[in-house]
Amino acid sequence: MSGIQLTETTSSSFAPAADEQTDKPERGREVLIVQSLSKFFQRANGTTVPAVDGVSLSVSAGEFLVLLGPSGCGKTTLLRCIAGLEKPDAGRIDIDGKTVYSSVERIELSAQQRTLSMVFQSYALWPNMSVFDNIAYPLRNRKIKKAQVEEDVNRIAKLVGIDEVITQYPNHISGGQQQRVALARALVSGDALVLFDEPLSNVDAKVRKDLRVELTALQRRFGFAAVYVTHDQEDAMELGTQIAVLEKGKVAQLASPREVYQNPASRYVATFIGSTNELPGKVVAVDSEGVEVETAIGRIRGTHVPHTMNVGDEAVAIFRPEHGTVSAVEPTGPNKLRAVYRTELFSGSHAEQILTFQHKVYRVWHGEPLERGEEGWIAVDPDKVHIFGA
Asked: Could you give the CA distance from residue 64 to residue 243 in angstroms, rounded to a whole number?
């Protein structure tokens, strides 16, 4: 079987037009299943740290799962456990219908025995091998016939747009081209699962955006299941069909990018994904439609309350800058927050109005700039406000 024939047909032209009908992979087949996986590390002082703490998740063919979180949250350790580069302490991992790790059954397959490919942050290209030989390496390891190797490598190189540099060496091509070589090497084997360890972190912003589009198109065309580690929110939002936000080794929320952004499950998720305004205070009213919190700059009401709250509880009201409006005139609706106007920051796609109160900064996108030092009002719809426990 040819290494890259994951679907019935593959086009040699890479980027499909917006209205082009591409091959759709069979959906629903679970390629990766992780059950109650844990991995612990010992600190120098003897304390045990749970890098991965009872994580369970699954990824089906055609799905793109992003593991998102700050440094030390466990995302890279989880990826390495799936790849077979770290040995978990408990749990189970199934890949493409085969158990590759089980603490109960005492199964542990090596990385070479797992039907997956991996794209590393550093690309991990052999400098003494040409682009062709780098891509061909996994096929040759699997004893694929020479003619088939040549056909598969040339096809995938053209597909990812590096066929013109196929005879060159990695140090003679750009960072973006090196990333495409690493991607081609991962795809050429035709594995149902591809792992990505922050593969876009070493390219500039423009190339990074282009590669996101290309990677999405390739994943859609080939239909492999993907697990992608990053701390970059734009990567997560644009690439993922699902995002798992990790916090101290646990999954804080697993949902679509839109759901994670619009309906964060916790204060941690809300403040990690995108920009937010946080207003701490005390709950002063609770009813069937929401919660009101008394804060330093005014009373604010929110309708998104994921956990039960009572009057007197410490709370934090959160809303995003794009949901706020600044004005010199007192608004007529609820959620009228008084602050001092400072400046406007222009970001190209939008302008942020910056206001402060008692040295705390608030950012809103809408409304007209005021005079520096002038008191103004921030208004926000209660349906756009989330209330979490402090």
From this structure: 8
**Tens-place pLDDT, residues 244-286:** 999 999 999 999 999 999 999 999 999 999 899 999 999 999 9
Length of the chain counted residue by residue: 390
Task: Say how many C-beta atoms besides its own lie within 10 A of residue 337's C-beta.
Answer: 26
For 87, phi then psi, to 5°, come to: -95, 120
d(CA 361, CA 371): 17
CATH node for 30-267: 3.40.50.300
- Other Cβ atoms less than 10 A from the Cβ of 22: the count is 16
Question: Residue 249 region, left (φ>0) first, then alpha (ψ -120 to 50), else beta?
Answer: left
Phi, psi dihedral angles at 62 (to 5 degrees): 85, -5
Residue 264 is encoded by which pair of tokens? 């964060």
Distance, CA of 89 to CA of 183 (rounded, Å): 31
Report d(CA 136, CA 149) in Å as an integer: 6
Residue that the structure tokens 């290309």 belong to = 214
Distance between CA atoms of 183 and 228, rounded to whole angstroms?
A: 13
Q: What is the pLDDT of residue 2?
A: 43
pLDDT in tens, 359-389: 899 999 999 889 999 999 999 999 999 999 9
Q: In the chain, what are the domain boundaries?
A: 30-267, 276-389
Fold of 276-389: OB fold (Dihydrolipoamide Acetyltransferase, E2P) (2.40.50)
What DSSP element (H or E) covers 82? helix 75-83
What's the Rg (C-alpha) of the chain?
25
| Count of C-beta atoms within a 10 Å radius of residue 271 | 15
d(CA 160, CA 117): 16
Q: What are the φ and ψ backbone dihedral angles of 272, each rounded to 5 degrees?
A: -85, -35
Evaluate whether 153 touches 139 at the Cβ level (below 8 Å).
yes
- Residues 318-364 have pLDDT tens digits of 999 999 999 999 998 889 999 999 999 998 888 999 999 998 999 99
Helix (H, G, I), strand (E, B) or coil at 367: strand
